[in-house]
Design goal:
The complex is a heterodimer of chains A (442) and B (101). Chain A is α+β, with helices and mostly antiparallel strands and 442 residues long. Chain A has 13 helices and 19 strands. Chain A is globular and about 80 Å long. Chain B has 101 residues and is of the alpha+beta class. In chain B, strand 4 and strand 5 form a beta hairpin. The termini of chain B are close together. Chain B is 24% helix and 29% strand. Chain B contains 4 helices and 6 strands; from the N terminus they run E-H-E-E-H-H-E-E-H-E. Classes of the chains: A alpha+beta (442), B alpha+beta (101). The interface between A and B is large, with 38 and 33 residues.
């Protein structure tokens, strides 16, 4: 092959796909279609709760668009980080949807499912062997107790599990947690293309047309050749310029010159960005430096408690003036009223220097019942507490909802964000192959 | 006298993983970029001061006429005390940095 044409369908699958841009990409004859399905950006909730945080109908219509197109063109569809966090529960949910799609569209599909969840036993063993270190200094040190507190732990897959799956000539690779680049770099590397260029290309296209000016979620095509790659947004209104593409290396990364990936790092010191025309940019000079020891990134979330929320809007200038007094007073009253003291309570003030102020009253406790009780007491006293200079004695806030105390459920936090040394790139990942005979049901 | 917001095309903040915030200040002319870069308007000391940390990093990135600042998060993204899940509204102290012309 003289080039590999890589079509990235959208920035994150499950939030809808811009169809005309995607179809324009299909007409250009891609060798494969890729899509990222997850991110750590929406916080620990997805990993902790097992929820995918996207609607079933959006997930299904996006998956359907990609899978039907891939099957029609006879090219593989590669998708990673299922269900936002990419745990086993997320992947299983997506696999069920893929099977529904196969049946409803009468498709025969060979699917590789890459599972990214790692057992606590394995992580404990690696911890004992001193093969785990913090990702950055402000990440809590990992302990055996911390591992037990994590609800589930995922590892980010490198390109190797994907390449293993591609070896089996599957129609669809659907994976749990993956490094974003693995989804798009695995196919070209499998076909023998330069790893530095492939990973750099992947790093850019996983966000679809975000690297263009103006940026967006439309499909993008990358043309990867021997010593460079070319980027073209499938929306003609979005232009990949040398500046816009170079600027993308800043996005959500601390270091624009170097990106650490499973098994090595991408070095961008000598990269050249050149305009092909006003819409298309060529990139060369990206280098891959393999690491001495192969590592993967681990992510784990623990449950901290259950939360309740009340929102109040304050317009009265006398109350606004005394807001700090009110907060101290309410906190003290809650402490004296509620005998169970094992809770956390916070007031978040928005619009402090304006004539209209919003307060979020948020509580957290081990049980939802206690969180609700604390939030209720705080809300009621915020509404009726007296303060110096009070004029309005019948209520201190406009409350925009009934019920005025809303249970918002579990609060999680990332307690694992660590780098783990592995024996082989496949050690943390299990690949299942499925043959779905949607066609034979017709 | 101009502010950084007058000169820069983009001033933004965002998560770089759940434990870091990264800020990008992007210019659309080499002249403006070099003015800010050479006047040392954004040094590590200044970044530490405006973001109340001891661990700020500042990186000049010539290929995109941009300056990057990184700081560790006080609360990891999405935990009980975190008020900005995506870290998207933390750039405000950068807007009004003063540039001598």
């Amino acid at each position: 092959m003289e080039e590999i044409r890589c079509l990235s369908a959208t920035g994150q699958l499950g939030y809808g796909i811009v169809k005309d841009s995607f179809y324009r990409g299909l007409e250009k004859g891609p060798h494969f279609i890729g899509a990222d399905m997850g991110s750590i950006d929406p916080g620990p909730y997805s990993l902790g709760s097992g929820s995918s945080m996207k609607s079933y109908s959006n997930i299904k219509s996006d998956l359907e668009l990609l899978i039907v197109a891939g099957k029609k063109l006879g090219i593989p569809v590669l998708m990673g980080s299922a269900g936002t966090a990419g745990g086993d529960v997320h992947l299983s949910y997506y696999l069920d949807i893929v099977q529904e799609i196969a049946k409803e569209n009468s498709l025969d599909l060979t699917i590789a499912a890459i599972y990214s969840e790692v057992s606590k036993g394995m992580v404990k063993e690696k911890l004992m062997q001193k093969k785990i270190k913090v990702h950055s200094p402000n990440v809590p040190e990992l302990t055996e107790e911390g591992i037990d507190q994590s609800i589930r732990i995922v590892a980010q897959a490198g390109v190797e599990p994907y390449m293993e799956a591609l070896n089996e000539e599957v129609d669809v690779v659907i994976a749990g947690r993956s490094s974003d680049t693995s989804i798009f770099a695995s196919y070209p590397i499998y076909k023998g293309y330069d790893k530095g260029l492939a990973i750099h290309m992947a790093k850019i296209v996983e966000c679809a047309s975000l690297c263009a000016e103006p940026g967006g979620r439309d499909a993008i095509m990358a043309y990867l050749r021997d010593d460079h790659f070319v980027l073209e947004s499938m929306n003609p209104q979005r232009h990949c310029t040398p500046l816009s593409v170079a600027a993308h290396s800043l996005y959500e990364e601390c270091n624009p010159y170097e990106v650490v990936e499973p098994g090595g790092r991408l070095v961008l010191d000598d990269v050249l960005y050149e305009a092909v025309n006003e819409h298309v940019t060529m990139v060369s000079g990206s280098k891959w430096i393999p690491a001495e020891k192969y590592t993967v990134k681990l992510e784990g979330a623990r449950l901290d408690g259950m939360r309740s929320l009340a929102i109040g809007v304050i317009m009265d200038p006398y109350m606004i003036k005394e807001i700090d007094y009110v907060m101290r007073e309410v906190e003290s009253i809650v402490r004296r009223v509620e005998d169970r003291h094992d809770y956390q309570l916070q007031f978040r003030i928005y619009g402090r220097d304006s004539s209209e102020m919003t307060v979020f009253i948020i509580s957290m406790a081990e049980s939802q019942e206690l969180a609700h009780a604390v939030c209720g007491i705080a809300k009621q006293n915020f509404l009726h507490v007296s303060y110096p200079g009070i004029k309005a004695t019948s209520g201190n806030m406009a409350i925009p909802f009934s019920p005025d105390v809303i249970d918002i459920g579990a609060s999680y936090s990332f307690n694992i964000y660590h780098i783990m040394e592995v024996e082989t790139p496949l050690e943390c990942f299990k690949i299942n192959y499925l043959d779905v005979k949607g066609g034979s049901h017709v | 006298m101009k502010s950084l917001a007058d000169l820069a095309k983009v001033i933004r903040s965002k998560n770089a993983g759940p434990f870091y915030i990264t800020f990008d200040i992007m210019f659309d002319s080499e002249e403006d970029y070099n003015l800010v870069k050479h006047q040392e308007i954004l040094t590590t000391e200044i970044a530490n001061l405006i973001f109340s940390t001891d661990f700020a990093q500042v990186i000049n990135y010539d290929p995109a006429l941009s300056i990057k600042v990184n700081i560790p998060r006080k609360h990891s993204s999405g935990e009980f005390l975190d008020a900005d899940l995506y870290g998207a509204q933390l750039h405000i102290p950068l807007l009004n940095l003063i540039i001598q012309e």
